[in-house]
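Sat 14:20. Reprocessing the chain from the morning session after the first attempt stalled halfway. Input below, unchanged.
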Amino acid sequence: MDKDIFDYREYREYLSDWIIGHPKRGRGLRSALASAINAPVSHVSQVLSKISHLSMEQAEDVNDYLGHTIEQSEFFLLLVQLSRAGTPKLKSRIESQIQKVREKRLILKDRLNIKNSISREDQAVFYSTWQYAAAHILLTIDKYRNKEAIAQYLGISLKKSTELLEFLTSIGLAKPSGNGYAVGPARIHLGNDSPMISKHHINWRMKAIQSLEREDASDSLHYSSCVSISKEDALRIKSLLVKAIENAKAIIRDSKEEEIHSFCMDFFKL
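Finished this time. Tokens:
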């Protein structure tokens, strides 16, 4: 479930929608939330019914439990402070802070929506780790189109998954869709002359090494060899491999999205 917290003015409505948006209307999540904030379920029920409030310490625990980014965490705390404020003067001050956050985000969204290509700076972030590309491709598969599923599949924290999706959304590679995300309108292509190409190759070769270390690698294919051949045959082999890549890409283009794989190929002169 991925509600945009910045659209809310009441933190308890946000939490209620977050719970209801899960399968089976979030059965069991009240208990899980109570455990996360070290409080009885009855307290969570009273909070969601707008009878009681979270303490600020409990609100921070909720931030951790929901995997909020730094920006989302700060906004959630503002919402809690707004609901807890006891005087009109204090409410007005907090509302002003909330409005500034929303205005800042609107300016950012307007700037990002007109981007037709991804900047060099954003590419540097995207290729800094394999996780951005993996999360982007996972969005092509229905069952992985939310931050919880991506976190579990990639073996990362919920907070990190949220950060990945926030960044992908900010550069147009992802977009909010229903209760989760979908692939965005932007496209990213790395040419052979890009200064990021080496980092891109290194990222996935490191994942290949990790794949070799898995106990169950029956679904993987790895081949390594050092050979001595003629210059002419080296060109022939390179041509064969290029053709194999083209054939594989044709299969990939028309294939149903069910799982993700890393496809690396190396053939070079020592």
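Residues 5-113 form a domain with the 434 Repressor (Amino-terminal Domain) fold (CATH 1.10.260).
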